[in-house]
Design brief:
This protein is α/β, with parallel strands linked by helices. It has a single domain, classed as TIM Barrel (Alpha-Beta Barrel), CATH 3.20.20.80. Helix content is 33%, strand content 13%. It is built from 15 helices and twelve strands. The strands form three sheets. It has an eight-stranded parallel barrel. β11, α14 and β12 form a beta-alpha-beta unit. It is globular, with a radius of gyration of 20 Å.
C-alpha cells in the first residue's frame, strides 16, 4: 500500500505551478522511445436522466461513477496509464461555455489517477457540436431519441472554433499536472461515416479535402492553440474515419515536434465484435477482405496490417500509439489474439491502452462485452480470479517500470 505521504505528494502535483515542481521529467520521452505506457481506457459521458434512469450511470452529472478503489485495482493489475475517454469541458450547445460539473468530474478522476500512481491522457469524446451519441448513431430512434445525436461540429465553423478554445482552456488548466502526459484532441473523428456513409479514405479524399468535414484542416488549429499556452505536454491525434488504421496514411502531420500520432485497432470487426454464433476464431480462416475467398487470420495477418504504421513512422519520423484496441471477451481465441497484437505493438515501440476498464459500479456491470475482468462466459457479470485473457493482459502490464512516483520532480 502506498504511503499517505506519497498520495499527498501526487495530489499536490495536480496544482503546483511549474516553477514549484522544478521537474526535469520530459513527458514526451514516454512516447518517443520504446513501449513504456501500457494501460486501459475508462469511459464516461454526461448522464441523460430520461434515458439512463436513476441508477445505470449514477445520479451525478457524469457517469458511470469511478472510485479510488477502481483506479487502485487498475494499477494493481500492472497498468501505469489510463486513457480518460471523457466529455469535453465546454458544452455541446451554444454558447459553448465551460461546464463546471464536467470539469469537476475530470479533476476528480485525475486526482484518483495520481493517488493510484497512474499516468493519464485526457481524451475528449464530446464538446461543441458533438454528443457522445455519435458513437452509437445506429441506435438513433431505437434505444435513444434522435434529438440526442449531434454532429454539427462538422458543419458549423463556430463549433470548430469553440472546440479550439476548449482545448486552449484545457491545456492552460492542466499543463502543470504531473500525471497528465497527453491531450487526445478528439476521440474518433468521424465525419466521413456520419455524413456520407464513407468508410474508405480514397472515397473521401480529395472530394472533401479542405472543407469543414476534413479533420486535417481542423485539428492543426487546436494544436496551435494548445501550444500558445502549453509548449510541453504531448498532443495525441488520430486520423478521421473513427481513427482506424487504414486512414492513418491520409493524416497530415504538423510541424509540432511533440505530437504523437495514434490509431484505434479493432480490425477485423467481424471477429473482435462477433455476436453469437461464434463461428470465427483466432487463429482461423474466413473472408477478411470481402472478396468472397477465405483468408488466413493469424499473427502474420496482424503484422501485415501494422505495416501501415511502420511506413507512416518511417516517412515522418514521428512516434505512434494505439490508444484503443480490444476484443469482446468471449471471442474464440481472444487471449491469443491479444497476445499476438500486444507483442507486435511492443516490437514497434508503441504505447497502448485497451478498451476498456469498467468501474465497480454495480448497475453498469451488465454492460461488459469488453470487460476482460469478467472472463469468457457471456452470462458472468462479475470479476473472475483468472482467465486466459486476463492473464495475457496482466503479463504485458507487468513489464511497466515507470510511474509518476518514479520520475524526477
Amino acid at each position: 500500500m502506498r504511503s499517505i505521504a506519497m498520495i499527498i505528494f501526487l495530489s499536490l502535483a495536480l496544482t503546483l505551478p511549474v516553477a514549484a515542481q522544478e521537474s526535469t521529467f520530459d513527458k514526451f520521452s514516454l512516447w518517443s522511445e520504446e513501449t513504456q505506457l501500457r494501460g486501459a481506457n475508462i469511459w464516461q459521458r454526461i448522464v441523460v436522466p430520461d434515458l439512463d434512469g436513476p441508477d445505470f450511470l449514477g445520479s451525478d452529472h457524469v457517469g458511470p461513477p469511478f472510485t479510488q478503489s477502481d483506479f487502485d485495482q487498475l494499477a494493481a493489475l500492472g497498468a501505469n496509464y489510463v486513457n480518460i475517454s471523457h466529455p469535453g469541458l465546454f458544452t455541446q450547445d451554444p454558447p459553448y461555455e465551460l461546464d463546471e460539473l464536467v470539469q469537476e468530474n475530470l479533476d476528480g478522476l485525475l486526482a484518483m489517477a495520481a493517488a493510484a500512481d497512474l499516468f493519464a491522457v485526457i481524451s475528449f469524446r464530446t464538446g461543441p457540436g458533438r454528443s457522445d451519441f455519435t458513437f452509437y448513431s445506429d441506435g438513433a430512434g431505437d434505444w435513444f431519441d434522435e434529438s440526442l445525436l449531434d454532429d454539427s461540429v462538422w458543419v458549423e465553423q463556430a463549433a470548430q472554433d469553440a472546440w479550439v478554445e476548449m482545448w486552449r482552456y484545457t491545456a492552460e488548466r492542466y499543463r502543470d499536472n504531473l500525471v497528465v502526459v497527453g491531450y487526445d484532441l478528439m476521440v474518433e473523428p468521424n465525419s466521413p461515416g456520419v455524413f456520407f456513409d464513407i468508410y474508405e479514405p480514397e472515397e473521401f479524399y480529395p472530394t472533401y479535402a479542405g472543407t469543414l468535414y476534413d479533420w486535417n484542416q481542423f485539428y492543426p488549429r487546436i494544436v496551435e492553440a494548445i501550444r500558445e499556452v502549453d509548449i510541453d505536454t504531448p498532443i495525441l491525434v488520430s486520423a478521421t474515419g473513427w481513427g482506424e488504421i487504414q486512414w492513418l496514411p491520409y493524416l497530415q502531420t504538423t510541424n509540432d515536434p511533440r505530437t504523437v500520432y495514434t490509431f484505434h485497432q479493432y480490425a477485423p470487426h467481424d471477429y473482435t465484435h462477433q455476436a453469437p454464433p461464434l463461428t470465427r476464431t483466432y487463429p482461423g480462416v474466413f473472408d477478411l477482405d470481402y472478396d468472397g475467398r477465405d483468408d488466413t487470420f493469424d499473427r502474420a495477418w496482424l503484422d501485415t496490417l501494422l505495416l501501415i504504421t511502420d511506413e507512416f513512422k518511417a516517412e515522418y519520423s514521428v512516434p505512434l500509439a494505439v490508444n484503443e484496441y480490444g476484443v469482446i471477451r468471449w471471442e474464440p481465441g481472444a487471449a491469443a489474439f491479444m497476445d499476438d497484437q500486444m507483442a507486435l505493438f511492443e516490437e514497434r515501440g508503441i504505447n497502448y491502452a485497451l478498451w476498456a476498464f469498467n468501474p465497480s459500479w454495480k448497475p453498469y456491470q451488465m454492460n461488459d462485452d469488453f470487460d476482460f475482468m469478467h472472463g469468457p462466459d457471456p452470462d458472468n457479470h462479475s470479476n473472475v480470479a483468472h482467465s486466459d485473457l486476463l492473464d495475457v493482459i496482466s503479463s504485458y502490464w507487468a513489464r511497466n517500470t515507470i510511474r509518476p512516483s518514479t520520475v524526477e520532480s
